[in-house]
Amino acid sequence: MDSPKIDHDVIIIGGGQTGLAAAYYLRRAEVEFTILDDGNEPGGAWLHGWDSLRLFSPASFSSLPGWLMPPSRESDGYPTRDEVISYLQRYEERYKFPVERPHKVESVTRESDVLRVILADGSSRTCHAVISATGTWSKPFVPDYLGKDLFSGVQIHSAHYETADDFAGQRVLIVGGGNSGAQILADLSTVAETIWVTLTPPVFLPDEIDGRVLFENASARVRGDVDANTTIGDIIMVAPVKAARDRGVLNAVRPFKQFTEDGVVWADQTETKIDAVIWCTGFRPATDHLKPLGVVEPNGRVQVIEQRSIKEPGLWLAGYGNWTGAASATLIGAGRTAREFVPRLVADLIGSSE
Predict the structure, then answer these.
(1) Measured between alpha carbons, how far apart are the two ends of the chain, in Å?
(2) Which of 68, 179, 195, 247 is 20 to 30 A from 31, comparing alpha carbons?
(3) What would the DSSP string read from start to end of 105-142?
(4) How far, in Å, are 20, 25, 67, 71, 273 from residue 31 at the CA level?
(5) What is the tens place of the pLDDT at every residue in 239-284?
(6) Residue 82 DSSP SS3
(7) Cα(88)–Cα(44) distance, integer angstroms
């Protein structure tokens, strides 16, 4: 049976920071490609972040390949959500990448020696290789918790949090540590009573250290360096988090036992009434579109060796976390990961055509 007609050499699924970084190196290699993005405009997951979201490393360190992010207007040098979105939009325009949107990819299948990418509108495209760069933002994770469905108040994930004004005057439970938990706590605590629940005590980095150290630590962990297992902290003290500390609200307690209809029960059996819960409990890989290939594990991951699927050699993944490259879900990590794997992808395309 003849192979289907090839529409593109490479299809990138996802037009956020990871997709743009991969596009940069494909363009340099003079490989034909297209980007299929399900957003209505450039900006990727940053378009859906909360209003006060801050990047936790300087603009000069948080740039995609080829063009530095302009310095932030903020006094501490950490770019705002809107500044990052503006940078990503201008980056896409600067390089005039072939981005098609909005195009939601439903599935990817193998047909003979090509891959077929099927869109929500029923149309499809064929290619030699797929770079899946859909990230995690569309797959927020909320853990099972005793009595969670009994609670009558508001429950949202950090992926759907927008502004503190929505919770003004309320008592809000923030569940989950890390930078999202700390930043949302800092934001909410200006207008609401907050209770911060973390599994273990949060570890804050010294004020003078920014997100660069987290990237280097993640890189060391991926390399297997023993010293990388030393915990130095993981929460960056951006200005709003420092302000929360100064107000005396940057305090976390250990997990509660269960929900009630209007609150929670703690381990000592005391109860606290609350109005809302914000789950800052992370995300899972958005890889449902890859399930027809038979490569997706129960946890949503795909087994890879250096970004390439073990089971489907035409599939490459980036931007999902350390398992697809050191800090590959960050701006700086997206560029470094693309610089490493795109040349291997290009070499494979050349080898296959000979």
Answers:
(1) 21
(2) 68
(3) EEEEEEETTEEEEEETTS-EEEEEEEEE---STTSB--
(4) 14, 9, 20, 32, 58
(5) 899 999 999 999 999 999 999 999 999 999 999 999 999 999 999 9
(6) helix
(7) 8
Mean pLDDT, the chain, as a whole number?
92
Average pLDDT of span 19-42? 98
Q: Which uninterrupted H or E stretch holds 84?
A: helix 81-95
Residue 231 pLDDT grade (very low, low, confident, very high; cuts 50, 70, 90): very low
CA 117/CA 111 separation, integer angstroms: 10
Q: How high is the pLDDT of residue 226? A: 45
Average pLDDT over residues 323-350: 94
Q: Are 301 and 310 in contact (CB under 8 A)?
A: no
Contact in structure between 34 and 12 (CB atoms under 8 Å): yes
Q: Say whether 148-279 and 8-139+284-353 share the same fold.
A: yes
Structure tokens, 171: 């008592």
Residue pair 12/134 in contact (Cβ under 8 Å)? The answer is no
The DSSP code for 212 is H
Contact 317, 307 (CB under 8 A): yes
Sequence-distant (6+) residues with CB within 8 A of 144 are none
pLDDT of residue 211: 53
Say if CB 53 and CB 81 are below 8 A apart. Answer: yes
> How far, in Å, CA of 139 to CA of 230, rounded?
30
Convert the pLDDT of each residue in 96-132 to its tens digit: 999 999 999 999 999 999 999 999 999 999 999 999 9
Q: Which fold has domain 8-139+284-353?
A: FAD/NAD(P)-binding domain (3.50.50)
Pick 148-279's CATH classification: 3.30.1330.60, 3.20.20.70, 3.90.245.10, 3.50.50.60. Answer: 3.50.50.60
Angle between helices 239-246 and 178-188 (to 10 degrees): 60
Task: State the CB neighbour count (10 A cutoff) for residue 186.
Answer: 24
Q: Tokens 């995690």 correspond to what residue?
A: 136
Burial class of 152 by CB neighbour count within 10 A (0 to 12, 13 to 18, 19+) = exposed
